Amino acid sequence: MKRVAILLSGGGSNMVALVRSMTGDHPARPCLVGSNDPEAGGLRRAAELGVPTVAIDHRPFKGDRPGFEAALTAALEEAAPDIVALAGFMRILTPGFVDRWAGRLLNIHPSLLPKYRGLDTHARAIAAGDTEAGCTVHEVTAALDDGPILGQARVPILPEDTPAALAARVLVQEHRLYPLVLRRFAEGRRDRIDL
Ligand code: GAR
């Protein structure tokens, strides 16, 4: 059975989708949910789901990203995950951290990569006049929102869309895509899926 750690910074709706998916004949189980924000709603939701949680507050490490990541790595090592899934984890990771977990580090990003790396993806897609948006699950490499794409899901952008309305439509697809990709990844599959 593969062990999955999930890192988040916010409400954790993707974490909930991932944790709920890991039952029955699924080849993985959640071993830890971690956050850089002790107040993150996702930590409470994880505890309610019976998953061990850890908070490594990034604020005392201001100006010391490697120090923050060393503390995070120590917590992860204790949980011994085979896979680390970033699910709305809003801290940029150094190459040192990425190397430590290379080949087992996944991320979900709310755009059709390689378009719109970084923040405000939905507002940027609307401003560009795009007719579709979506989300991407990819392996994490040292470059921001880069790395081999494992899956994408697409949604239309409607004429009256606001960034919030579009984000909500994309999030529904995130909750479909990420569990599917995680399961395949845990089975050793790296081929790309498109929804
Ligand atoms: C999701 O939309 C995820 O794709 C995005 O944050 C949201 C987290 O929501 N991630 C990023 O922007 C990463 N750069 P959640 O906490 O409800 O899963």
Automatic annotation (TrEMBL):
The protein's Enzyme Commission number: 2.1.2.2
InterPro entries linked: Formyl_transf_N, Formyl_transf_N_sf, GART, GART_AS
Gene Ontology terms, MF aspect: phosphoribosylglycinamide formyltransferase activity
Annotated metabolic or biological route of this protein: Purine metabolism; IMP biosynthesis via de novo pathway; N(2)-formyl-N(1)-(5-phospho-D-ribosyl)glycinamide from N(1)-(5-phospho-D-ribosyl)glycinamide (10-formyl THF route): step 1/1
Record GO biological process: 'de novo' IMP biosynthetic process
Pfam families reported for this sequence: Formyl_trans_N
CDD domains assigned to the protein according to its UniProt record, in alphabetical order: FMT_core_GART
Catalysed transformations (reactions): N(1)-(5-phospho-beta-D-ribosyl)glycinamide + (6R)-10-formyltetrahydrofolate = N(2)-formyl-N(1)-(5-phospho-beta-D-ribosyl)glycinamide + (6S)-5,6,7,8-tetrahydrofolate + H(+)
Keywords tagged on the record: Purine biosynthesis, Transferase
Active site: H109 (proton donor)
Formyl transferase N-terminal domain boundaries: 2-182
Feature type site, description Raises pKa of active site His: D145
Taxonomy, superkingdom: Bacteria
Gene3D superfamilies: Formyl transferase, N-terminal domain
GO cellular component annotations of the record: cytosol
Ligand binding (N(1)-(5-phospho-beta-D-ribosyl)glycinamide): G12, S13, N14
Residues at which (6R)-10-formyltetrahydrofolate binds: R65, M90, R91, I92, L93, N107
The protein's role, per its UniProt record: Catalyzes the transfer of a formyl group from 10-formyltetrahydrofolate to 5-phospho-ribosyl-glycinamide (GAR), producing 5-phospho-ribosyl-N-formylglycinamide (FGAR) and tetrahydrofolate.
Family recorded in the similarity comment: Belongs to the GART family.
UniProt cross-references to HAMAP family, sorted A to Z: PurN
PANTHER family assigned to the protein according to its UniProt record, in alphabetical order: PHOSPHORIBOSYLGLYCINAMIDE FORMYLTRANSFERASE
Protein name: Phosphoribosylglycinamide formyltransferase
Species in which this protein is naturally found: Jannaschia seohaensis
Gene: purN
